[in-house]
Design a protein that fits this description.
Layout (H helix, E strand, L loop, with lengths): L4 H10 L2 H10 L4 H13 L11 H5 L5 H4 L1 E7 L2 H13 L5 E3 L9 H6 L3 E6 L3 H13 L12
Length: about 150
């Protein structure tokens, strides 16, 4: 099944900046998909980062671009879960990105899972710390007691 230009434009408009850049850098896009994705990137006033540019690595506190390579740390059915955990990781100083959350706008949870789920990604250099925090988060380490005042 061939995807039309209109479908690609709709898909790329719903992507966040980071996801759009990641898709372009993946090397997996067809020629038409690359053309449409580049046009969307330009319409946002963005450019692809230079592969030799370490500003992203420096921005997330990593020594090299190898440490900054994003790795999947968890998969979720619903984007809300992924965004909540992403916010938690960011509050702990770990850069994170939610990839694939837009699929829920056009499909069902079963289809999202068939596509690999909504991915939560972190830089390779922060993976171990993020994994430890994620385990603490899942275990309830950060839960407030029932009698706590939320204000």
């Amino acid at each position: 099944m061939e995807i039309s230009r209109i479908e690609l434009e709709s898909t790329y408009k719903s992507c966040g900046d980071e996801e759009l850049i990641q898709r372009l850098q993946s090397g997996a896009l067809t020629e038409l998909a690359q053309e449409v994705a580049h046009a969307e990137l330009q319409s946002r006033g963005l450019t692809l980062p230079d592969p030799g540019d370490n500003s992203y690595s420096e921005a997330v506190g990593l020594a090299s671009s190898a440490e900054a390579k994003l790795m999947t740390i968890a998969r979720y059915t619903y984007p809300t879960e992924a965004h909540l955990v992403s916010a938690f990781l960011r509050s702990e100083g770990i850069y994170s990105a939610v990839i694939g959350g837009q699929y829920m706008q056009v499909t069902t949870p079963w289809e999202v899972n068939a596509l690999g789920g909504v991915r939560l990604m972190v830089p390779a250099g922060q993976f171990d710390r993020a994994l430890a925090l994620l385990e603490e988060f899942k275990s309830g380490e950060f839960e407030l007691p029932d009698d706590s005042d939320p204000t």
